């Protein structure tokens, strides 16, 4: 066994040198400093997501211009500590901290209020002028209730499924490095679990700034400075930036115009936990959750120029998936495919057609940042400015993948084009190298099948890596008439109608006149996505189009139910939904179920009763096994999240009897516990406890209050 040895130094905050040093941030444009006679305003582009229609669970990502008065704006810097228990978290913080310092320098010149909020570090700054500024700020009148408390969830998040499992604390360190780092912290006299004592020295604190992490003091500053707008930066977004008393949720809940600067932040997420994606894809999911359910986001370049910051190890290509067709349900199949097959190695954005205007595709601005475009569109004449965004994307030589109806995406068969809209009849020929001119009859009972096979002449092609079927396979998609395709196309699969000839090209790669890579397949029926070879083909095509190595083994296989916390719905009336037992065949294994309960402050030292009866279950409250319905007051943490964990033995279902509530007999109030829980297949007694304080590791979708 070989070992690596590292020299550990202290510089501003604690990091490793050598090959652990982060790359210098990208060169930036100099900020525009306002002259004395010029009133500088913040011209921002806010990005946010809106549901395409109620309960669709599909979201348009949209942009809107906003102008803020910098003198009525505050930047709150969350927990940019000088050290952390995760060495990878330290590395990432050091990487973006210099750029964040530029943001703060520029914002100060415009008169923006700067609030440094390194939690747990106020003793270090007790004599600092910026700390005294905070302490002497007049107390605000009528402060919001609970402004000094952690905020675990706001109403906008109540119906949302939380996108990652962070309940282990989110450390993504190499175990050997982590142990070395912990040893170094001990030698420095630091607690390896909470080693921070101050904010990183990379962020310069000026005498006119403020230092405070107490929610009520932050609120005093915001009111006293007449702040209307708040920008949150710092770490870690899925924990502290969202939940702290000065965090996003509290600012939104209390009526301030609030944004997250999404490139000046990081998260705590371990890729070994669900949904088993890269750390940077985890950041995307948290940012997406915020844009859907909490507030808009911006990027640092909107204040200081240059380009948005990107971590040096974030090498993922950006894939945009455009969906605007109703025949083949790709607005359902493609997101599932992408999240399962591609999210590990790609940054993914989705664009859907407006459900009230089929020819409107909101959010195409994202193409400016994209590397690849996957098209599933059928016969749309879209606004000229939107089609021009697609034309510009193609003209720059970036890659395009088309499936099924993409061959006639912007061809409306001679119908009248609405004023201000446009079509692209040659999209098939120019971009995809195709020649769509109708299709054979649809498949169905008693009808000839469509049979497809690999073109053995081109079996060397990387896109065909790992396909399992050497002979013809039956597919659900009707056969498109595509012959002859461009001479520059490389035909990868052909198809025929059973009992007929000739064959038609079904899948091909194509190098365009502009030098860009394209791939097209006429497959794409919902049932095609159940065929392993089609999923492999499409996955390979995306990697090929991105000019990336194609994994030899598919990353598509979903994890088994065992090994991760799975969302489930528990109630006393919907037993068919309870416990996700339908996922198992044969005997049920031992399972744990858990939820989190926000116990009100005024329930302190009260007699609480848990009404939840399930045959054979072991019930635990904050790690303590309940032997009766009464919960001892000393087990309860009022004002915080409390863990209810239930172990169900092998072969037994979880169907609660009677009510599911926790109640306070004195106040005659109760909390209903029917709804979303988590389930894990395991018999580990440690699951009776939460790995870290729940306020840091909680999923918003399993909280009852």
Summarize the structure.
This protein is α/β, with parallel strands linked by helices and 705 residues long. It has 13 helices and 32 strands.
List the helices and strands and how they pair.
Layout: E1 9-11, E2 13-15, E3 42-51, E4 59-68, E5 73-78, H1 87-109, E6 113-117, H2 129-135, H3 175-187, E7 210-211, H4 215-224, E8 229-234, H5 237-243, H6 248-253, E9 257-265, H7 279-293, E10 297-298, H8 301-304, E11 318-324, H9 330-341, E12 347-352, E13 372-377, E14 382-383, H10 384-395, E15 399-403, E16 421-422, H11 427-432, E17 450-454, E18 473-475, E19 489-497, E20 504-511, E21 517-521, H12 532-545, E22 566-570, E23 591-598, E24 608-613, E25 618-621, E26 624-625, E27 630-631, E28 641-648, E29 657-664, E30 669-672, E31 675-681, H13 694-697, E32 703-704
Parallel strand pairs: 5-6, 5-8, 6-7, 8-9, 9-10, 11-12, 11-13, 13-15, 15-21, 23-32
Antiparallel strand pairs: 1-2, 3-4, 14-16, 17-18, 17-19, 19-20, 20-21, 22-31, 23-28, 23-31, 24-27, 24-29, 25-26, 25-28, 29-30
Characterization of the model:
A 9-stranded mixed β-sheet has the order 12-11-13-15-21-20-19-17-18. The chain is built from 13 helices and 32 strands. It starts with 8 loop residues before the first strand and ends with a strand. The longest helix is centred in the N-terminal third of the chain and has 23 residues, at 87-109. The chain is 19% helix and 24% strand. The protein is of the alpha/beta class and 705 residues long. It folds into 3 domains: 9-38 and 71-304, Rossmann fold, CATH 3.40.50.850; 318-545, 3-Layer(aba) Sandwich (Rossmann fold); 566-704, Jelly Rolls (Sandwich).
